[in-house]
Amino acid sequence: MFSVKTTSLKAILLLGSAIVISSCGSSKYAATEKIYKEKTKEFAKIITSTPPVGQLYDTLNPTNQQWIGSVNFGVRKPNFVILHHTAQDSLAQTVKTFHSTRAGTSAHYVVSRDGKVVQMVNDYLRSNHAGVSKWGKDTDLNSSSIGIELDNNGTTDIWTDAQINSLIKLLTTLKKKYNIPTANFIGHSDIAPKRKPDPNKFPWKKLALKGFGFWYNDILKNPPANFDTTNALKLMGYDTSDIGATITAFKRHFIQTDITPKLTPVDILVLYNVYTKY
Ligand SMILES: [Zn+2]
């Protein structure tokens, strides 16, 4: 009797664990979704704490300060969009990478070659896509931008219409929703010229014609005699601490057929024209 009871108890326990396993296994991404939810809960705790922990009382003299919450505020919004190529072979491979804590990287969106858009981080949160980067005086692009990865292994200039059309739809939504300036749609190589080549051979002109980033005019005027190319690149936003890398990044974006770290007379005409738009 006793042994029968034990057996049935074991059976119930086994059944219970089977149900738990099947509910966890009902989604391929259950484990990573759980981690995402836990992390956002931690951030919610930070946001809802009053007074905010470590922002006032921990660092200054508490007798000379006070927390009084305002009633007028909102969440911070992204002001840039940074485009990347994944340098991987498929959407599935990129999703796997963005689930690897060892890789430590992510993006808000991944756009696949067939036009499917996968969101992986809430727009209001900081994804790890930009790394060490600089644009103008902004040295924390991860905090100020939306990162979009385009599934492309980086060796081809073939971008499918489905992928670019989905990207344009996504950019249209983001630009309108967060009021992102036209100039602020740029590439990873623009903000990290010493480190990153992506997106490579990218149809920037097509995007610029839709209002995302700038492109040069068909007719180019000569710059004034005192035109300073390094200063122009700097005023556009480029980090000019390694001017060769900066010129290559500029040419990767606007010239594409040649990315040698020297400005030809035609490159200078293009630079002068786009610089006046930024
Ligand atoms: Zn990148």
Automatic annotation (TrEMBL):
One Gene Ontology molecular-function label: N-acetylmuramoyl-L-alanine amidase activity
Domain N-acetylmuramoyl-L-alanine amidase positions: 68-200
SUPFAM superfamilies, A to Z: N-acetylmuramoyl-L-alanine amidase-like
CDD domains: PGRP
EC identifiers of the protein: 3.5.1.28
Key words of the record: Cell wall biogenesis/degradation, Hydrolase
PROSITE patterns found in the cross-reference section: PROKAR_LIPOPROTEIN (PS51257)
One Gene Ontology CC term in the entry: outer membrane
GO BP: cell wall organization; peptidoglycan catabolic process; peptidoglycan turnover
EC class of the enzyme, as a word: hydrolase
Transmembrane segments: none
Coiled-coil intervals: none
Pfam families, alphabetized: Amidase_2 (PF01510)
Catalytic activity, as annotated: Hydrolyzes the link between N-acetylmuramoyl residues and L-amino acid residues in certain cell-wall glycopeptides
PANTHER family: N-ACETYLMURAMOYL-L-ALANINE AMIDASE AMID
Keyword Magnesium: no
Protein name from the UniProt record: N-acetylmuramoyl-L-alanine amidase
